[in-house]
Amino acid sequence: MNLQLDSIQNDLQTIYRKLEMTDDLCLERIKSEYLGRQDNVCTLMQLFEKHNTDIQEQVGVSVSVATLQKYNVCKKHFAAFLNEKYKRCDIRLSELTFTVIHDFDIYLRTTAGQNPNTATKTMKTFKTITILGRKMGALNHDPFINHHFHLEPVNRGFLTDEEIMKIANKDFGINRLELVRDVFIFSCFTGLAYIDVSNLTPDNIVTLDDKQWIMTKRQKTSVETNVLLLDIPKRIITKYGHKTYRDGKLLPVLTNQKINAYLKEIADLCGIKKNLIFHLARHREFCKHQIINRLNCL
Q1: Are 100 and 91 in contact (CB under 8 A)?
Q2: What is the pairing mode between strands 159-160 and 284-285?
Q3: For residue 126, which of 101, 97, 92, 94 has the smallest C-alpha distance?
Q4: Which of 91, 164, 174, 198 could form a disulfide with 253 if both were Cys (CB 3.0 to 4.6 A apart)?
Q5: Where's the Phage integrase SAM-like domain (predicted)?
């Protein structure tokens, strides 16, 4: 028994001395080394790769494609930052200090051209990567301990009754603009976000007591949502209901990037000076009942 204990002690001391030289010394790492569990993650880009691979495997189950894309973009930015700032393609986890965190934040706001809020969101995404490293025992310190996140308040504005009317009644004569306008107006009258509109299928339309409802779950919050269908969204559904769309979707929703690009064209054609993006469909100042009977273009 004593010989076995002496052997264990010698092994632990050997591991301790080895890790002491690499600055990766912590109890979890010693335990992993002793038990033979090595994740082969000792650099930041390796940690990124493991995290993003794990996320990719969950896409379509519990994770959206947009979430995977967010982490891949963060990885791409950090790789570009390492090359720009340190002329390196990777760093050891033990080298990930507050200074590196601070420099990356500055890089995002300057060289990468991100606005303050976007940079803050990217840094929060990056912190998620480091949290995984700490849980794995591969990162034995918190490089974000002195970093503070701050989001600037944003006034996205809103659309007035008159502006909604201009968009809804405009005869664009261009199919892609007509489609984008219809999807935008649909969101105005349902209050659903872009991703929730694009996820709708005919199965989400339910009739109860002779009234039609949209019954769905918001992707961002997983909250069940029931929306009474008014005449305008009903007519939009009918307008596009004669075709079958990708993956059996209710409406032929384009990508968010394309929709926002086309909304800028719509704003120009309608004489609207505001930055018209899809999110504004949920920021509006008009009474639904006042304009239901005035919309005659759909």
Answers
A1: yes
A2: parallel
A3: 101
A4: 198
A5: 43-146
In the numeric block, which tokens belong to residue 261? 């690009």
Residue 47 neighbours by CB under 8 Å, 6+ apart? 41, 93, 129, 130, 132, 133, 138, 139
Q: Which residue has the tokens 């664009």?
A: 172
Q: Residue 214: beta bridge partners?
A: 205, 227
Host domain of residue 184: 161-296
Asked if the structure places residue 55 within a domain, the reply is: yes
Q: Give the CATH number, domain containing residue 290.
A: 1.10.443.10
- Percent of the chain having pLDDT more than 90? 59
Q: What's the mean pLDDT in 178-183?
A: 96
For residue 140, is pLDDT > 80? Answer: yes
Taking Cα atoms as reference points, which of 223, 253, 222, 226 lies closest to residue 237?
253
Whether the per-residue pLDDT at 285 is higher than 60: the answer is: no
Question: Is 94 a member of any domain?
Answer: yes
Q: How many domains does the chain have?
A: 2
Give the residue with greater pLDDT, 294 vs 134. 134
Whether residue 75 is found in the same domain as residue 125: yes
Mean per-residue pLDDT of the chain: 86
Cα–Cα distance between 45 and 95 in angstroms, integer?
A: 12
Q: Is the pLDDT of residue 23 over 60?
A: no
Regarding whether 258 and 166 lie in a shared domain, the answer is yes
Q: What pTM value is reported for the model?
A: 0.61
| Domain presence at residue 25 | no
Residues 218 and 166 in one domain: yes
Q: Given pLDDT bands bounded at 50, 70 and 90, which one contains residue 275?
A: confident
